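Can you give me the bound-state structure? Components:
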Amino acid sequence: DQQVKQNSPSLSVQEGRISILNCDYTNSMFDYFLWYKKYPAEGPTFLISISSIKDKNEDGRFTVFLNKSAKHLSLHIVPSQPGDSAVYFCAARDSGAGSYQLTFGKGTKLSVIP
Amino acid sequence: GAGVSQSPSNKVTEKGKDVELRCDPISGHTALYWYRQSLGQGLEFLIYFQGNSAPDKSGLPSDRFSAERTGGSVSTLTIQRTQQEDSAVYLCASSLAKTSGGTGTQYFGPGTRLTVL
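Here's the bound-state model for the whole set.
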């Protein structure tokens, strides 16, 4: 049973345009959400996060939106740059649980075309 | 400062052999996690260490998998009698403890790619 779902395995966007990556979750106990970016042969790199008490968090070109009622979050990158081409993982955790273990989606491969 | 380091970066072994994977967390991070990523899959939680507390082993897929963390720093993940389905990238992450008031954001190492022939 996949608790975090990224239904688009890949996405192609023109340089300068907006990239929107989507993520859905099923566990209502999740209260903290993170996006990680991964280049080939490297470990995931933390990008941005959002607590369930917020509906938006912005950091430079990256904005994460959270819709709790829909159990949906999205990552917006604007403007998209070729260096943003990577696999993006959505992750969630239940902060009330014993550990901060993360539950990950399968990832979306973003290709930004120059 | 230095990030999370893992060794070896690549490991090829024969079915039935034991392997040890090493993780060196960020200095000062008391929480340490092991995950694995199989081909085409997301990261799968394996085990969690926090200070001197008993580890959370709920993600270990079988009793062939074990891990230890010596002195609250370096961790070793051991897979005994490896099987072909163990082939994956094994990732280690570390974070500040929950009680430190931080958000507990996990920082990952580059991973060890394990191939079982």
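A couple of observations. The two ends of chain B are 37 Å apart (CA to CA). The mean pLDDT of chain B is 91.
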